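#help-structures
NK: newbie question, is this the right format to request a structure? protein is Xylose transport system permease protein XylH
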Amino acid sequence: MTAVEGLRDIFTKNLRTSGIYIAFIVIVALFAVLTDGVLLAPGNITNIVLQYSYILILAIGMVIVIIGGHIDLSVGSVVALTGAVSAILVIKNGQPWFVGIIAALVVGLLVGAWQGFWVAYVGIPAFIVTLAGMLLFRGLTYEVLNNISLSPFPSSYQKVAGGFINGLFGGNGYDVFTLVIAAIAVAGYAFSAWRSRMGRLRYQQSVEALPLFVLKLVAIAVVVMAFAWQLAHSRGLPIVLIILAVLILAYNTVTTRTVFGRHVYAIGGNLNAAQLSGVKVKQVNFWIFVNMGFLAGVAGAIYSSRSNGAQPGAGNMFELDAIAACFIGGASTTGGVGRVTGAMVGGLIMAVMSNGMQLMGVPQSTQQIVKGLVLLLAVAFDIYNKRRAGAAR
């Protein structure tokens, strides 16, 4: 494949996946201009990471749910409940910070198992089960907190979402450690991409032209190092960013290189075909929701750490932000299509838009209108692609 053919392939055949990255670059550039560069200032980039990390974590689980042909409307309430349980143990009963974290994860897993049972083994649609869960777990949050907020958490707990790793390698006005970690990440990605390319060539599969492949790696390296440079000039490497990066790498591997991941895509793409192929649909659906509950527990711990307390109304509308991130990132409304990386880019688009509009002083009502229109256009684009693909056949 020549470079010209590769570019044409990116902008036509793979418009669904490549278009989101182009849109992200355009949106970042637009808001950078509209905010006079404040959007890309070191301190603001750090704030974006801290403020939207829990939405991105929820989006990782949500995209797997959506790929499987389901939806989860309860994650915001689960974030509130897990944070509340953690607060009761750490703030009210004086337990160590890690006990609160473990409790949040366990509660998340139990919630996921509860909902997975009703969806997978009883056969109630996920929409109904999680709608009931949204009400049930919000009510339990009020009961756990006795209708009051609890704060503050000890400083050790706050570091989960607000701590930084810096100064290990020194630096004059910037943190060298952050740059070293970013360079290692770029090198690791380049090595993985090269191995994948060589593997495809061995099996005589088509790959992009070598110049285009190198150009893509260079572009990714420039973006990552520029991002790290800004973080290094602020407060260093956020702990929550390390947690998020580990989750992204782990779940990208799970969805693309494991039997479970292939079964999730199979169920969402064609349920009858998956059943006839021997996929254990009930078990896969059960574990999809257990996983979503676990990640909601992670997000609940991080959000409570970030907000330095637990509130009965915490996590309100988080489920809609997570769902929007997945659909903007290329997931299909009918299941079977989507990627973790796409959901992350979709979440970052929402984060950049929200942060940019806040910096511009745009009213909250207008921000909601803009987000709604962006989500609507993303789904319309999905439907347009399906109709075009159907016509092509």
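mod (FA): yep, format's fine, and the tokens are attached above. The chain has a mean pLDDT of 90.
NK: thank you!
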